[in-house]
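Case study 2.
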Amino acid sequence: MWNSSSECRVVRELCDDRLCPYEDEESDWSPIHDVVFNGRILTLQKLITQVNSSTVDGRTALTEACSKGHVACVLLLLQHGASPQGRDWSSSPIHWAAAKGHPECVKALVQHRADVDQHIDKLGSPLHLACTSQQLSTVRKLLFSPSGANVNRDVAGESPLHTAARLSSPELVSVLLDHGADRLLVNSEGKRPLDLTSPDSETWRLLKEAGGSQTK
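Prediction:
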């Protein structure tokens, strides 16, 4: 029978020689958070009834699994009713997966109706975070998803293409342009993506050839 004593034993085994967070009565992590953190799929199956338990700051087991890239855990959690939608940065599985560069986690979330364009204040969409972290494979996964991430969605006036230009990433710039990124969009400073690049760089050349020096 799976009971509280069994749960504590599993937690002790998972913690090994390190300090176990559950020994602290003030801790708001549940055993399922630690299991997912360590990618223990078999133990997760036993704890699955706690699928949507969360910490004080809103982090669920699914959020943790996505941040660590444990795809098997992500799939199992989703299959057992884990909510794919978070309310903010700390609790949004798809934002964590995008920022950490876990495209297969993004794929699983999208298949379970996570909002590929979910906007969080000051952070923007998953695509913004994937670009900021220069996670090219995740950027591709978001853009090629069935609903297709909005390539021109801005945060504080900055589009994903502005971010890619600032980072001088020709790979990101190329894939964003291929998916319809507006090369003439101006940010809050009145600058186009081209204006944020170094002259004669590969990124500058790509934007120049795409007509990025024109005016609307």
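Residues 1-26 have pLDDT under 50 and may be disordered.
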